[in-house]
């Protein structure tokens, strides 16, 4: 499968309007945002776990990055409520599940060579940073010089610009904003190639946004199996 694979073009996906697609595991469904490959794929996806569902143990050969959007995601290491962010580098493994059901945002096979940092940020954790104009708060979840991942709260009814020197990927967590002619609501996802800033007008409730500032594909991204 190849979905939104052209990284030179801007893309916005209103994921809440997409149909859920069953995964190979019963009770686990997906809304695909970006994908290159089959069941093993370089991919960005919204995943929904029905109550009591689980995915078999698997090794993250290409690394996994997760933000919990709703409910509580779980594995044998612990519970991860909504707002939790974590990175499972290549070589790690677990048995993901959810007793009460959850929805998560997942990025697979997008790690670069040598990135072996494993972190868990509980809701509200992260280093406070200086907000950009129009923002009221920024929490940096991860920054190793190659990529910066943050959650930002943008004030209501304001124009906000995020400069883009390396590439930007973003997910609306709450509130709303307009980007050009597109009206983005909760779980709308976007990706912009380097050089194209994110220019947005927030709605009456403002917006909370997950942002990754990094090359859309690292030059030394891990190679997928043939």
Describe this structure in words.
The protein has about 230 residues and is mainly β. The protein has no helices and 22 strands. A hairpin with a 4-residue loop joins β16 and β17. About 0% of the residues lie in helices and about 55% in strands. The two termini are about 15 Å apart. The chain folds into 2 domains: about 100 residues, Jelly Rolls; about 90 residues, Jelly Rolls (Sandwich), CATH 2.60.120. It is globular, with a radius of gyration of 17 Å. Strands 1, 3, 4, 5, 8, 9, 10, 13 and 14 form a 9-stranded antiparallel sheet that branches. Strands 2, 15, 16, 17, 18, 19, 20, 21 and 22 form a 9-stranded antiparallel sheet that branches. It has a two-stranded antiparallel ribbon with strand order 6-12.
Notable features of this structure?
226 residues; mainly beta; Jelly Rolls; 9-stranded antiparallel sheet; globular
Fold blueprint:
Layout: E1 2-3, E2 11-14, E3 21-22, E4 28-37, E5 41-49, E6 53-54, E7 58-59, E8 64-75, E9 78-81, E10 85-88, E11 93-94, E12 97-98, E13 102-108, E14 119-121, E15 127-128, E16 135-143, E17 148-154, E18 159-162, E19 168-179, E20 182-184, E21 188-192, E22 198-213
